[in-house]
Amino acid sequence: MRHRLVAPLIAAGLFAASCQQQAQAEGAVATPAAAVQAREPAGRKTAVFAGGCFWGIEAVFSHLNGVSSVVSGYHGGAKNTAIYDVVGNGRTGHAEAVRVTYDPARIRYDQLLRVFFAVGADPTQLNYQGPDHGTQYRNTLVPMNPEQARVAAAYLGQLKKSGLWKQPIVTTIEPYKAFYPAEAYHQDFAANNPDHGYIKRWDAPKVANLKRMFPDLYKASFTRN
């Protein structure tokens, strides 16, 4: 049911498996400001994050000031397997991910990292997030340049020493390979489907936590592609 009938089930409001399972949102974590701040040159930059179902990660980043685009997609595998039906088998090497375009003069990469770990993804869950299990739901950072790689490594090290989580942090840093945008119906999914059961129970709380914890970074409007 999850694969070939994805689009029809969305239309029928019955989409319910894996990325779509009903679940209560996990709590947010008050992550610290980065000790090592990003110093990227002027001009728009892109970064890739993977942290479970891409609907919720897209929704979080789409409500940040300084972010001009958030695209849901696949990273880590081959082009010919960058298909939702296929990625769902967990054997393609792909992770459900988002590509974020932002202005470093308005929001720094280290601030994106802080938000990601505070309200987006649990760094202690290996190859799953909440109800979604498989390597396609792994938690990983994909730096797009040496500065992002430097800051990502430093922040992960900082979090591992923080004691904020009872379990070990298993988030990885992966080298960038290629990012393949997901199918059109996955883009802006939370904005287009606010009453969807998964969005209401899993992803809307993430956005609410973002608004509560990062009022200076939060924007009410959703950055649409």
Order of helices and strands: HEHEHEHEEEHEEHH
Largest sheet: 6 strands, mixed
Helix tally? 7
Radius of gyration: 16 Å
- The tally of beta strands, per DSSP, is 8
Inertia-based shape: globular
CATH class: Alpha Beta
Strand content: 15-25%
What is the structural class? alpha+beta
Q: What name goes with the CATH superfamily?
A: Peptide methionine sulphoxide reductase MsrA
Query: Average pLDDT value?
Result: 90
User: Could you tell me how far the N terminus lies from the C terminus, measured between alpha carbons in angstroms?
Assistant: 28 Å
SSE blueprint:
Elements: H1 6-12, E1 45-51, H2 54-62, E2 67-75, H3 84-87, E3 95-102, H4 109-120, E4 128-129, E5 132-133, E6 139-142, H5 146-162, E7 172-173, E8 179-181, H6 189-192, H7 197-213
Parallel strand pairs: 6-7
Antiparallel strand pairs: 1-3, 1-6, 2-3, 2-8, 4-5
Helix pairs in contact: 2-4, 2-7, 4-5, 4-7
